[in-house]
Amino acid sequence: MSDVSYIRRPNRLLQIYACIFLIVLYVPVLFIPLFSFNDSIYVRFPLQGFTTNWYADLMRRDPLWAALMNSLRVGLSVAVISTFLGVLAARAITRYRLAGQNALVAFIMLPLVIPGIIFGVALLVLMSRMGVPLSLYTVALGHLIVCLPFAVATLLPRFEGFDRSMEEASADLGENPWWTFWRVTFPIVYPGVVASFLLTFTISFDEFIMAFFLSSTDATLPMYIWSQLRFPREFPSVLALSSIILLVSFALVFLALRIGRLGSVRKPGAGSNGAD
Amino acid sequence: MIDAPLTGTRPAVVQERRPGRLAGLFHRSESLRGYTMLSPTMLVMAVGILAPFIILLAMSFWTRQGFEFDTTPTFANYARAMSEPIFGAFLARSFWVSGIATVATVLLCYPMAYYVAFHVHRNKMLWIVLMTLPFWTSYLLRVFAWKVILGYEGVINSALLSMGLIDAPLEFLLYSQTAVIITLAHAWAAFAILPLYVSLEKIDRSLLEAATDLGDGPAWRFLRVTLPLSMPGVIAAVFLIFIPTTGDFITPALLGGPDGAMIGNLIQLQFGAVNNWPMGAALSIVLMLWIATVALVFLLVTRKAQERLA
């Protein structure tokens, strides 16, 4: 690097710390896939040998597949709705100068700083007083509240860097607002929309607290895992299931973050090798 | 299938296309259009946040009568929450446990965020993704992972045993406050790293050069320039971790054992096995009030400290 100064001087100690930090961050999670291939009902060292039995065992569990379908349905609906609402909100916040704008944004971000259990019980109380039976719909409503801050937070930066003269040019050239939106605005904010969709889907798919309070007999996947955790002999199967979920979640989020930055920081050679 | 909430967004769209006087007003007033565009989101948030909280607040003044509720307002639940020591003890323990976890997380994450902000020059994005990726996996799974690691026959104990370092499994690992604190600190790391990184990245590097030119060594430069300027990130990180973890009930339920249970478990019990919803509602309100108080005190203290430093 050409511009090595006293501030940018590489710091060996910090480098080591960063590596240890990443290891500590990942190792606990990586024990899950490791033991999911272990040929023993007990999750302990020494490892007993390789098996894929626990994965095969998953295939025979019907409640699991029902739970997976429930989670997919809730996750997809929540992702579509929260991204749609997020686009509207982000557009309104960045395009117009609104009185009380900061308060409105703070209100949207409120779920981030309120314990999930309080949202869960509050919605539960509301539903029961209104006589709404608990179902996947109530779970979806709960997830929507949890996901909206993330959708807006993902979309706002995309809309903030938006050059309005592009839209004005389109309008001057005779496009109506609807087509301007689809042919000018949308292509520019598209990476943010995809990122928001994938992130909100992942959050909803993994969400547990809302589902715990707001679901009835239709379990979502995390609820199913929770119900299995009580039985130690189910541990290996839960590990196998968790490994699959981890893999899919990692892939989705990685995709979301990559797409989300498309066009914003595209630099030659970026992503070719590890930093430092 | 689950597009019921979507119908809530329809009126805005319909309104936008309705011709006549309303439409005229619409096109003239920029901010009206802005508010209309924002209204579906706000509607959902109002239904999902405001309405439940109002009812929760109302219910906290009710009492349970068998399987029904007596809706005459009374402070009985709050009086109980104050008089019975168990509630206070659980509340205090929740604040203690999540307080320690918050401090530990922020302290451990600060150098990491500092490293990426100041010492990583290529592929910063890759580092950020690496640091935040585990956060996006299920919270339940991460807690479960720690159960696997800290368990009586878990990874640590069985590894130490098979290496002959210990004769009997270490019992303090699982079902203790320590287990809860470790798990919380690990699970919420991303919430500390992101705000810390953002505030550190924003610091104007020329200020650091100025401090050095004026004779500050690395330690003073950090204390007088970097640390104060990154305080917004520290405060955000503290809030983002402390507030949600105080109400957590999954980690204590899976790893806490008898003396690791927190106020969240108590609230969950009121809505579950104990089946005293008004009491649970009152406890939720008490928890929120305490969180708000602690947050305000923390803000005031940091502000005072910053003023003194400046």
TrEMBL record, chain A:
<feature type="transmembrane region" description="Helical">
    <location>
        <begin position="12"/>
        <end position="35"/>
    </location>
</feature>
<feature type="transmembrane region" description="Helical">
    <location>
        <begin position="188"/>
        <end position="215"/>
    </location>
</feature>
<feature type="transmembrane region" description="Helical">
    <location>
        <begin position="235"/>
        <end position="257"/>
    </location>
</feature>
<feature type="transmembrane region" description="Helical">
    <location>
        <begin position="64"/>
        <end position="90"/>
    </location>
</feature>
<dbReference type="GO" id="GO:0005886">
    <property type="term" value="C:plasma membrane"/>
</dbReference>
<feature type="transmembrane region" description="Helical">
    <location>
        <begin position="134"/>
        <end position="156"/>
    </location>
</feature>
<dbReference type="InterPro" id="IPR035906">
    <property type="entry name" value="MetI-like_sf"/>
</dbReference>
<comment type="similarity">
    <text>Belongs to the binding-protein-dependent transport system permease family. CysTW subfamily.</text>
</comment>
<keyword id="KW-1003">Cell membrane</keyword>
<dbReference type="Pfam" id="PF00528">
    <property type="entry name" value="BPD_transp_1"/>
</dbReference>
<keyword id="KW-0812">Transmembrane</keyword>
<dbReference type="GO" id="GO:0055085">
    <property type="term" value="P:transmembrane transport"/>
</dbReference>
<keyword id="KW-1133">Transmembrane helix</keyword>
<dbReference type="InterPro" id="IPR051789">
    <property type="entry name" value="Bact_Polyamine_Transport"/>
</dbReference>
<protein>
    <submittedName>
        <fullName>ABC transporter permease</fullName>
    </submittedName>
</protein>
<keyword id="KW-0472">Membrane</keyword>
<feature type="domain" description="ABC transmembrane type-1">
    <location>
        <begin position="68"/>
        <end position="256"/>
    </location>
</feature>
<dbReference type="InterPro" id="IPR000515">
    <property type="entry name" value="MetI-like"/>
</dbReference>
<keyword id="KW-0813">Transport</keyword>
<feature type="transmembrane region" description="Helical">
    <location>
        <begin position="102"/>
        <end position="128"/>
    </location>
</feature>
UniProtKB/TrEMBL annotation, chain B:
<feature type="transmembrane region" description="Helical">
    <location>
        <begin position="279"/>
        <end position="301"/>
    </location>
</feature>
<comment type="similarity">
    <text>Belongs to the binding-protein-dependent transport system permease family. CysTW subfamily.</text>
</comment>
<keyword id="KW-0472">Membrane</keyword>
<dbReference type="GO" id="GO:0005886">
    <property type="term" value="C:plasma membrane"/>
</dbReference>
<protein>
    <submittedName>
        <fullName>ABC transporter permease</fullName>
    </submittedName>
</protein>
<feature type="transmembrane region" description="Helical">
    <location>
        <begin position="42"/>
        <end position="62"/>
    </location>
</feature>
<feature type="transmembrane region" description="Helical">
    <location>
        <begin position="221"/>
        <end position="243"/>
    </location>
</feature>
<feature type="domain" description="ABC transmembrane type-1">
    <location>
        <begin position="91"/>
        <end position="298"/>
    </location>
</feature>
<keyword id="KW-1003">Cell membrane</keyword>
<feature type="transmembrane region" description="Helical">
    <location>
        <begin position="95"/>
        <end position="118"/>
    </location>
</feature>
<feature type="transmembrane region" description="Helical">
    <location>
        <begin position="172"/>
        <end position="200"/>
    </location>
</feature>
<keyword id="KW-0813">Transport</keyword>
<feature type="transmembrane region" description="Helical">
    <location>
        <begin position="125"/>
        <end position="152"/>
    </location>
</feature>
<keyword id="KW-1133">Transmembrane helix</keyword>
<keyword id="KW-0812">Transmembrane</keyword>
<dbReference type="InterPro" id="IPR000515">
    <property type="entry name" value="MetI-like"/>
</dbReference>
<dbReference type="InterPro" id="IPR035906">
    <property type="entry name" value="MetI-like_sf"/>
</dbReference>
<dbReference type="GO" id="GO:0055085">
    <property type="term" value="P:transmembrane transport"/>
</dbReference>
